[in-house]
Amino acid sequence: MQKKTSVNIIDVARVANVSVATVSRSFNNPEVVKPKVREKILQIAADLGYTANSAAKALRSKKTKVIGAIVPTLDHSIYATMIHAFQNTLSEQGYVVYVVSCGFDSSDIFDKVTLLLERSAEALLIVGEILDENLEKHLLKMNIPTVCTYSYKYDSVFPFIGFDNYASITTVTDHLYALGHRNITMICGPLKGNDRQITRVEAFENYMANKQAQYSVIECKGDYNIAFGSDTIKSIVQESPNVTAVICNSDVIAFGVLAGAKEIGISIPDQISVTGCDNLEFAEYLTPPLTTLRIPAEQMGVLSAKTILENLNNKKPLQSFLLETDLITRASTSAKPQ
Amino acid sequence: MQKKTSVNIIDVARVANVSVATVSRSFNNPEVVKPKVREKILQIAADLGYTANSAAKALRSKKTKVIGAIVPTLDHSIYATMIHAFQNTLSEQGYVVYVVSCGFDSSDIFDKVTLLLERSAEALLIVGEILDENLEKHLLKMNIPTVCTYSYKYDSVFPFIGFDNYASITTVTDHLYALGHRNITMICGPLKGNDRQITRVEAFENYMANKQAQYSVIECKGDYNIAFGSDTIKSIVQESPNVTAVICNSDVIAFGVLAGAKEIGISIPDQISVTGCDNLEFAEYLTPPLTTLRIPAEQMGVLSAKTILENLNNKKPLQSFLLETDLITRASTSAKPQ
DNA sequence: CTGAAAGCGCTTACAG
DNA sequence: CTGAAAGCGCTTACAG
After folding, report:
1. Residue range B198-220, pLDDT digits in tens
2. Distance C1 C1' – B53 CA (angstroms)
3. Residue B126's closest CA among B190, B71, B171, B201?
4. Taking a C-beta distance cutoff of 8 angstroms, is the pair A189, A220 a contact?
5. Of all nucleotides in the shown strands, which has a C1' nearest the CA of A9?
6. Where would you tag: which of A123, B5, B95, B170 has the fewest CB atoms within 10 A of its CB?
7. pLDDT of B122-171, one tens digit each?
8. Which nucleotide is nearest to A50 (CA to C1')?
9. In chain A, where does the domain assigned CATH 3.40.50.2300 lie?
10. Residue B262 forms contact with A (CB below 8 Å)
11. Architecture of the structural domain at B57-163+297-323
């Protein structure tokens, strides 16, 4: 029927003059094989260039050692950093991470999950909340350990390893309010199917409404970048000349805001204060250095990996972690101009 | 022995009252199944929540639909962008990309390749040249279609989908020389096991030696970042006050150079001209905007995916592509100060 | 400590 | 157009 493509366990067994069971044990259960025999087998396997077929292993043992991850995009370094950390931690135990990007709208990721489950992912990492009830039921039914990141909910079916977007943005807004700003604009990422952005906007609006201050929100409908930030600050200055502070829900947008402001001769922070989110490496090197919210991206990746590993290896229940964010104040924010 | 974890093809067949062969055909060879039967089967499969077990599929059909990629790191957006494009193109045909990062030294990536081959990767993407002869032989023997990117060699065993690092850096150097610069420093990434950096340094040194101009090279031994660029320009100014131009082999380093120069009161380009590489989005938004080399990262990802697909689907030989780079001149370079 | 054998869930040549 | 059956390459309970 189909021809053999490479050397398999039977070849090794034949050359070593042992059964396939013993070859298998030499790799997977070495302490149970007589040392001399084991060494000989390992040597022969190496000579023949044998590597175990992971599909056969997976089929037989029901352990694929595949973990799935669904992220908005790898093109933003905040996600790339998290996945990098997630992957590195898991690869130490021979796990492989399949990454699928879904864009910022996670209300319809059933297809993406299916893709990963077809690959027999043993566990899943998802960015944000699961917004699709059917998906939640499905994952529960299939009994797939699933970790949500970047957000935090207390009453969730699946554990969250993230931070409190509401409290974090409240802190940012309060920082500006305390500096005297009473007319603030938030520039946010796409809202549809994006609980992080929705929560941040809520936090901002509630705070400002509560203080009876003026505010507005500008949403980037698609993928945001520096150019979007630059364009947006220009239109803010044009159309809302009384705005004295701008909250950007990403450092990338804030980068653009600083660049755009410079272009049209607006001085930051003298005329407008600007804040970012993420504390990417460039934030402190911008002119002026950017006040921003540190997001524990790497930590989320590592902790997600560890709790999944604990669950898979030792049947421990998945754990939630509420991580800290810090507001790092730099020169891009100052007291409201008189 | 082991218990069934989820619904399989036999369950579907039983409910639909057909053989497993017909269920299989309904998915993989639909035109060969009577439409009414096929629809019924597909409906039942959906109702039951059936998804094919990819391990069994892979084992039986010898097609894993897994492609492996080895990149220095996902933490640099230039690689993340390439992989993103590579992945997107391949996923349209149901392929999955397993990404492994190896750091910048690719002289010893045999282990990483083994990891990918154990997962039965059907093809490989590698950044840079294959420096390990044994690895080359191994891949040849195993008959694994392999594409190298980011470099270009005419006489290579495996095809390259990349650009000419030598010519590109010669262009950059020539740009500065033509502007009158006669004392130039190159800041490069780690050289060990990194053919791209080695080639760039060669191009730079040959050009400068040939012109009997002064030059030096500063190597970042580990992973480079903005901080490294910033520190380095400070030591250049300190120790080599006659340097009038700095070539950075990455925009990230150049970002740091601009930031560091500003800190110590060196004006760019009035006192020192600076160039980058990659043309990342931020390059044009820096102060001053950065003269840099555009690298076709996305194009490399897409073309690599396409040639692999052509090879796998239609047995076409893998193709090489020599892609263009452009020197984008912006305000960070100007004539040598008198 | 080792071997013989069952079986994981599919695909596919073969026969009808 | 459909079904019966072999077999992909492993792991693991069972027997010795």
Report:
1. 999 999 999 999 999 999 999 99
2. 35
3. B71
4. yes
5. D9
6. B5
7. 999 999 999 999 899 888 888 899 999 999 998 899 999 999 999 999 99
8. D9
9. 57-163+297-323, 165-295
10. yes
11. 3-Layer(aba) Sandwich (3.40)
